[in-house]
Every structure is written in C-alpha cells, then in structure tokens.
Amino acid sequence: MFDVVFISYREPNRQRRFNNLKNRIPFLKHVTDVKGIHNAHIKAAQLCDTKMFYVIDGDADLLDTFNFDENFKYNFNVSYDTVYVWQSINPINDLIYGYGGVKLLPRQLVLDMDKSSKDMTTSISKNFCVVEQISNRTSFNTDKLSTWRSAFRECVKLTLSDDVESDARLNSWLNPLAECDYRDYAVRGAKEGKAFALENKNNLTELNNINDYDWLRNRYNKTK
To answer: What is this structure's pTM?
Structure first.
C-alpha cells in the first residue's frame, strides 16, 4: 500500500477531518502548520516510505464512494514519475476538476521539486494524469479568510493559464452560485486574484507569494 498523508494548515475543522480519516485509514500520517505549500509536501514525503504517496488536503471532505482499497489494487501499474490528481467538487461554483482533489505523488520527485514554482503540483513532474473520478468535496468556504484565500490563489493560476478551459473556470469563480457560504468573499478573492495575476504576470517573485499564507493573510487584511 502507498502511504497516505493529510496536510493541513490552520483549517478550522482540520482535527475533526483528520480523526474521521484516521478511522478509514489507520496508517494515515499528518503534516500540519508547516509554513509554505512546497515545504509541507516535502515534509510529507520525508514521512513516507513508499515510492508514491497520497495527499489529502486539510479542507477536503472525502466522499464515501472514494475507496483507497480499490486504488491500492493498481499500485503496481502506476508510473513512478507521474503526478496523479483526482477530481473534486467545488462548493462555490459546482465545478468538478482537479482543484483540491486527492493527489498521488512520486516521493523522490517531491523531495527534489523546484520550490520557486507558483504551482506546486505541476512543478513536481512534467508527467501529469487527471483521474476521472471524484474523490472529495473541497470545503474551503468555512470562514471569510479561507474562502478569499482559496479563490485568490486559484484565480491567479487560472488567469495565468490563459486557455479556453481555464478562462471558463475563471468565469465560474467570478460568477459563482447565488446561494453558498461566504459567496461575497469568493467573488472578492477571484477578482483580486485575477487583477494581481495580470499586474504581476512577468514578476515571478511576486507571484510566488501566493504560496505564503502569512503574505496572503496580510494582503486580505489590507484590502478588506
């Protein structure tokens, strides 16, 4: 079996989620409150012994239909130089894509990854596989800051991707469902993320700040 790591960073319900997951996955490991997304994943890799390891984000509510035992059956068929990402349900706009989904990562490539990249997942390997199965609901809209931060970070990435699919997803973030928790903060984060990306599209140093949660909190407080 591949190791499974739950990575959390100050999410309000992280301990409850970890305890629930621990009941389903007794060998689950936990990395919490490590500053920097890249650093947190490197710490996770250091805790693991298997060539690949699963990552569950701290705001993920795993679906009952997502069965790790079923996935484990295919462990010997995976490529050890490939990043696998399952799909997730977005509570703000009902999009279903890889944002916030369960990931299966190659341990050594995580340890060696480029920490200067703004997008941690795609910096691990050039080989990327989207698994057409929903793994969880990404419940990031639990408070004002978390909702704004999630929308801001994702919309920076979508704006910089500059392709038809990303543009459509960005539009859904900018115009979410009429009724959902912290809708206004999602819209604000999306708008500010898009503006920040356009303003700094040629400034990698500034763009990399989206992976610094202290920087994000300060920006949120300055603009609210």
So the answer is: 0.91
